[in-house]
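Quick log. Single chain, no ligands specified.
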Amino acid sequence: MTPLLAALVLAAAPPAWRVEVATLGGVSGGGAGAVRIASTGEAEVVAPSGQRCRVQLAPAELTRLARAVRRAHPARWRPRYYLPDNPTGCCDQMATTLALLRGPASKPRSVTGWYDESRQLVPADALALHEAAMDLAAAHQGCAAR
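-> predicted structure:
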């Protein structure tokens, strides 16, 4: 492959990305699990029980998440969404943190977060990204047994 052809192939490739969701709190204190998914399909799932596993997602499984990544506008996200009368998420609320990295790992991640009661303040694009990632995590909890 010539250098020019290699450059054209790289330019045509979709940009790399990674989505990370982590949850804490709730009645149990342990959250609802966590997930890290890369555009390559590599995923690490953490079940609410704390069990961790890695899985390679099929391209078809990534379709919804990749669409949410393309539609996300993290520059518009606030660092955290909370109600002014309850900035710490008291009591027994789940805290969610969402991170999106586009491009090389050296680029900074875009991060936002919220508590259960402030979910209605979170932009739709961030919620769509969160839901797509957590749906994949739910589908692959206990992935070591698959």
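The longest strand covers residues 17-25.
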